[in-house]
Write a structure and sequence with these properties.
The chain is α+β, with helices and mostly antiparallel strands. It folds into four domains: 205 residues, Lysozyme; 71 residues, Listeria-Bacteroides repeat domain (Immunoglobulin-like, Sandwich); 167 residues, no CATH class; 218 residues, Glycosidases (TIM Barrel), CATH 3.20.20.80. The chain is 33% helix and 21% strand. The protein is built from 20 helices and 30 strands. An eight-stranded mixed β-barrel has the order 22-23-25-26-27-28-29-30, surrounded by four helices. Strands 11-9-15-13-14 form a five-stranded mixed sheet. A three-stranded antiparallel sheet has the order 1-2-6. Strand 18 and strand 19 form a beta hairpin. Helix 1 packs parallel to helix 3 and helix 2 packs parallel to helix 4.
Length: 697
């Protein structure tokens, strides 16, 4: 049985192996609801009990908490493009044309809860953890609101639930609380809900939500940067520390509540608070220019950007704030301020690299010549370029300016980058006018701040600007922790274990697996076969049997991958069953991978495949593999991960990410394995071989 203890305020779930008594909870429901729930339990639990005796059911606390939080609605309603009814249960648009009774709603609720019970039991069984009833109920409530995708992530909540992280009660509360965002904003309603769930997790009661913990939600101010917009504190104690907040030309002076109360780190926590940062003006003490004075309206902007290396002087100690900005200068300033890298010249002109890059990314309609780079640039062209570099589309809103009607200008006005000049009761943009270096400093600073905030909400990949998918675990790997020595990549983070691996196909020829095993290589993923990209016939890798047996005999962990070109669920299922047939008789303890790749040829049968079809195919393949007792995984590249897949649809399975030309992986979302090179060198293999690092979290 699982044990719990509290020592010095620490709360630690101890994973326990062995049997757990089934907990049966009589729930307050109608006779009809009880009958249906009993039928569902018999259908779902009898087969599962044959495989595990550790199944748990949601208790009264969970059901009552869900009903209280969701509230009852007899008529259908929409939220986020989906239909719901009853106690926040998803339904189809054509369902329940005459509404629903409370008894029917509870039946629907219980049916939905059954699916979360199965998922959660599988999660705990996978990690050999026996939760308390309170822990189980809390995570049922959380999953009902948020879905089950969190289970495959690496958040603190996942680590705590797995029994991998010692946590104080406060840390448990914060692990729940940080899941309070919607649309990129921390919401007090969701924060309240998360603390209620934390209280259930800790004490099988919601009382601690009001008596022990309080949250702090920060209103994010444009022009300032924040470490986070949410934190949890203990009621009755001093705040102690706040999330880091910074603003150009100011020092942080605490937070102010909506009723005007200022709180500092020494203030005593007396309840939940939604606050706005307070600032004290400071003077800049860094680099100076002879023609930029502290009294100038643009002083702080120039100095901050100068410190960041985004703007610079003329080499004679001056900045020339009133000089018109050239096209080349603007390209460089805007690109650097929006997070793009410095560009080397492609011609004799110092700014030619920026011009080439901007054109290749679709930010400009032309690749400016050297002559044009020295010319001035209009305010309209600056706005269009800046909006595209930020990833903004043209706004459809009415223009706020009397002298220009341009969607990109409007978009930047809405973002606070361009304000315009007020003349009488009209606001003017002056689209054809040139722009001075002082004006540039102001605009670029606003872009710089906006870009810093926007990076949390947008993904810029090539010509694509993508919304961040909510609920998908993100890449939290420390870029500085990656170290490559020859062909071997290591990750120096004590909190994450890694394994070094290779992946092979028949093209590696004869392999001395004993020699491979004497290196730093821990595992190998061997190709089973694939499907042709034109006719679509399935083929076998001629070396799979030899590789799988040889590597296992040498003591290496062995996985497998199939090069898929499936264009339907039926084909993906065919591939999975083919893989299972080939794996029979081999010692496969590593992942079995669905390796669907984009073929850049017009004759490729996968050309133009719809995202929904691809996701369904991947899920179908992986489900068959998982049901057979293996660990499925999905192979992705940047293009596949960002463009072809909708990762929110394949969250049940870990990702194997491929990117070769970087020192550290920058893919936005979380992944379990990184294929970091196709040109590795390992003893026992002639020629190049793919290299991999596997993160064991």
């Amino acid at each position: 049985m699982e044990k719990h203890f509290r020592e010095s305020g620490r709360f630690r779930p101890i994973p326990a192996k062995g049997e757990n008594e089934m907990k049966q909870n009589m729930r307050k429901r109608s006779p009809l609801a009880m009958l249906l729930a009993l039928c569902l339990a018999m259908q779902l639990c009898v087969p599962a009990a044959m495989a595990s005796n550790r199944l748990m059911r949601a208790g009264d606390t969970a059901i009552e908490q869900i009903e209280e939080e969701e509230g009852f609605r007899a008529e259908k309603y929409t939220s986020g493009g989906k239909w719901y009814i009853g106690y926040g249960t998803e339904c189809d648009a054509e369902d329940y044309p005459e509404g629903i009774t409370r008894e029917e709603a509870e039946l629907l609720l219980m049916s939905k809860v059954e699916t979360y019970e199965a998922k959660l039991n599988d999660f705990f069984d996978r990690y050999d953890v026996t939760p308390t009833q309170g822990q189980f109920d809390a995570l049922i409530c959380f999953s009902y609101n948020f879905g089950t995708g969190w289970m495959s992530g690496t958040s603190d909540l996942v680590k705590i639930a797995r029994g991998e992280k010692d946590a104080t009660r406060l840390e448990v509360a914060h692990a729940f609380g940080e899941w309070c965002h919607s649309g990129g904003q921390a919401l007090s309603g969701l924060a309240d809900r998360r603390l209620q769930e934390a209280a259930i997790y800790l004490d099988d009661s919601t009382r601690a939500a009001e008596d022990e913990f309080a949250y702090l939600i920060i209103n994010m101010e444009s022009g300032a940067s924040y470490e986070t917009d949410f934190a949890v504190y203990e009621i009755g104690k001093a705040y102690g520390s706040f999330p880091k907040a910074e603003k150009l030309g100011y020092s942080f002076a605490g937070f102010r509540t909506s009723d005007g109360k200022t709180i500092t780190e020494n203030s005593i926590v007396d309840g939940n608070a939604v606050v706005t940062a307070q600032w004290t003006a400071t003077s800049y003490t860094g680099k100076t220019y002879t023609d930029v004075n502290k009294s100038d309206w643009f002083y702080n902007y120039v100095m901050e950007l100068s410190e960041q290396g985004i703007v610079g002087g003329n080499g004679d100690g001056t900045f020339a704030p009133n000089r018109a900005t050239s096209t080349g200068e603007m390209l460089k300033l805007v690109l650097l301020s929006t997070g793009h890298k410095e560009q080397k010249p492609t011609t004799a002109h110092w700014a030619s690299g920026y011009a080439t890059y901007a054109y290749s990314m679709g930010f400009t309609a032309q690749n400016y010549s050297d002559y044009q780079l020295d010319n001035g640039i209009s305010r309209l062209d600056v706005a269009r370029f800046a909006a595209k570099a930020l990833g903004y589309g043209a706004s459809n809103a009415a223009s706020p300016f009397a002298d220009v009607n341009d969607g990109y200008v409007t978009a930047l006005y809405e973002a606070g980058v361009f304000i315009g000049t007020k003349v009488g009761d009209q606001t003017y943009f002056y689209p054809g006018s040139s722009i001075t270096r002082a004006e540039v400093a102001t605009i670029v600073y606003r872009i710089y701040q906006l870009s810093s905030l926007d990076q949390k909400q947008k993904i810029h990949y090539g010509n694509y600007t993508l919304d961040v998918l909510e609920g998908i675990p993100t890449n939290t790997y420390n870029k500085d922790a990656f170290v490559k020595n020859g062909s071997i990549m290591t990750y120096n983070d004590p909190g994450v274990r890694t394994r070094v691996g290779i992946d092979v196909s028949q093209y590696q020829g004869d392999v001395d697996w004993n020699a491979v095993a004497r290196t730093d290589v821990d595992f190998v993923i061997a190709r089973v076969g694939g499907r042709g990209y034109t006719v679509g016939a399935i083929y076998d890798d001629t070396k799979f049997d030899e590789y799988a047996d040889g590597a296992a005999k040498a003591g290496l962990q062995v996985g497998a991958y199939f090069f898929s070109q499936a264009v339907s669920v039926a084909e993906a299922q065919e591939e999975a069953y083919h893989v299972l047939d080939k794996l029979r008789g081999h010692e496969i303890t590593g992942p079995v991978v669905f390796d669907w790749e984009v073929i850049g040829k017009s004759e490729a049968r996968t050309y133009g495949i719809e995202t929904g079809v691809l996701c369904a195919a991947a899920n179908a393949f992986c489900k068959i593999i998982k049901d057979a007792g293996y660990d499925p995984m999905i192979y992705i590249t940047d293009y596949a991960g960002y463009v072809k897949y909708d990762l929110s649809e394949v969250m049940d399975y870990p990702l194997w990410y491929a990117r070769y030309d970087v020192d550290a992986p920058s893919f936005y979302y979380d992944f379990a394995m990184w294929q970091y090179s196709s040109k590795g060198s390992v003893d026992g293999i002639k020629g190049n071989v793919d290299m991999d690092i596997w993160f064991i979290k």
